[in-house]
Amino acid sequence: MLDVLVIGSGYGGAAIAARLAPHASVLVVERGRWWRPGQFPHGVAAMCRTYRTRRNPTGLWGVRLGRGTGVGYASAVGGSSAVNYGITSRPDDHVFAGWPVSAAALAPYFARAREVLRPTPSPRAVALGDRAFLDRVEPGRRVDLENTIDWDRCDDCGRCVPGCNRGAKRALDQTYLALALAAGAELRVETEVRGLVPLRDGGHAVELRAAGGGPEWVRARQVVLAAGTLGTLDLVHRSHLAVGPGFGQRLSLNGDGLAFLYDTPHALSSHAGAPISTSVRIPFTDEDGRVRTLMVMSGRVPAAASRFAAAALAALAGTIGDDPGRSAHAPHPLRRRLRDLAIVDSGGALSRSFMYKLDAQDRGRGTARFTGAGVVIDWPDYADDPILRFAGERLRAWAAAAGGTVVPDVARLPGMRSFSVHPLGGCRMACSIDDGVVDDVGRVFHPGGGVHAGLRIADGSIVPEALGVPPSWTITALAERIADDLIRELATSDRPQRSASATSTSRT
Ligand SMILES: Cc1cc2nc3c(=O)[nH]c(=O)nc-3n(C[C@H](O)[C@H](O)[C@H](O)COP(=O)(O)OP(=O)(O)OC[C@H]3O[C@@H](n4cnc5c(N)ncnc54)[C@H](O)[C@@H]3O)c2cc1C
Ligand code: SF4
Predict the structure, then answer these.
(1) Which of 310, 314, 349, 390 is least crowded, fewest Cβ atoms below 10 Å from its Cβ?
(2) In the predicted model, what is the mean pLDDT of residues 20-41?
(3) 475 lines ligand 1 (CB under 6 A)
(4) Model-level pTM greater than 0.90?
(5) Residue 195 sits in a domain of what CATH number?
(6) Pocket residues for ligand 2 (CB within 6 Å)?
């Protein structure tokens, strides 16, 4: 029997595998492909071809549409690290106030994760206009970002999403997964876990299905669900695991949002391909007196979408745009906007626009709904969350102070939805089953008392609430802590020493 089977190779799964592999036999099962530099899709047609469907189960990315929300996800070796910006940000201390593990207890695990992820600031960020702009509109609140990018190899092409073809982004296959494989972990790619069944003598039988293949069963003493928020919710549901009433409740979209301050009088950098490099953090006090974080990042229009974005923004600015500062600032020359339609460069309106990319501590009112195509998140009035309204007010204040046309979150247009790539929760960490689904080390509460033997969850689904910053570092730190506890448990359990590889078995 295998010691540890890890489902999913994103931040949680990769960290668990790297830490456990020196101590135990570890198999990581990942349904996505291993995308190497040079293989990531380039252009709209290629993006469409890599959309994940039943017929294309190893597709790179997908979308789930719920009531009021849409969630984007990636399916690949390294999870969403394959397609993200590599922004590595720690939440403010107040975020951890109601968690079953304190900020102080998590600090060494953040440090440990940082040593492996190795984020660094962009040496070229200082040349971009957005830092000076943020200092002007939110004095003293700028927080420059760090990314898991090798800046010497990065040419600022702006294609981090949907994947770096230069090998400059240090995705997890270059960090945690490389450590796991070097320590002897096995990685099965293009193989989906369909469900798991607890065994009477401990451990679980896990059903795997390779793309285009038939079912296969593997037995493991410990199973770690790290399939990402949507993937783990699907697996717990599909496996009919007995869990607490909090399952699928209190999901957060981490305040994800997008709006624009279009065609300001200032030289900005929305058009520049460079990865997102700076932000401001603004405290917001909610109606209960609780301080929450609003993080506004200076976003960048992906290079592939810049011409489309220029045209769409010009049109939206004319129809739904709002210009609170018009009287105080010179009117915006039409020729800048027209120029963008021919060539997107530093002379056009897009280069003077601020892409208002939000992460925020929303109230976590999303609920999971299980459909034939998998879980979706319903939160019809997400766009009315108080912190998102506050974000809209700040943007209007910026426009009044610094000029530009506010193009508000298009999610508010009829028929549109809010969109997030940071879904969190649904199996939230808590002190008891009354308040969540797992304990502080990822063990799953059993409604009959105690916890499920040999089962942990270690991914975005256990994060108890919105973080207000991009979540990858926090998920990794939580997984580091869970790995420590798992190593202790394996060391004290009655088991043979490290076995060689996975054992196929029938379900009976
Ligand atoms: C476009 C984009 C940009 C982002 N930018 C940033 C950023 O810059 N910084 C940041 O901190 N965060 C960013 N995020 C969010 C961040 O990447 C995620 O929060 C994080 O990856 C979640 O980690 P995870 O361990 O929960 O799971 P994931 O990274 O989602 O990995 C889960 C893996 O499990 C696999 N899986 C699912 N179900 C199964 C199954 N049944 N069998 C086998 N395998 C399965 C999936 O294929 C996937 O590879 C971004 C996300 C996206 C999509
Ligand atoms: S900007 Fe381009 S080269 Fe740099 S990390 Fe992103 S995709 Fe890679």
Answers:
(1) 390
(2) 97
(3) yes
(4) yes
(5) 3.50.50.60
(6) 149, 154-160, 164, 166, 168-169, 273, 275
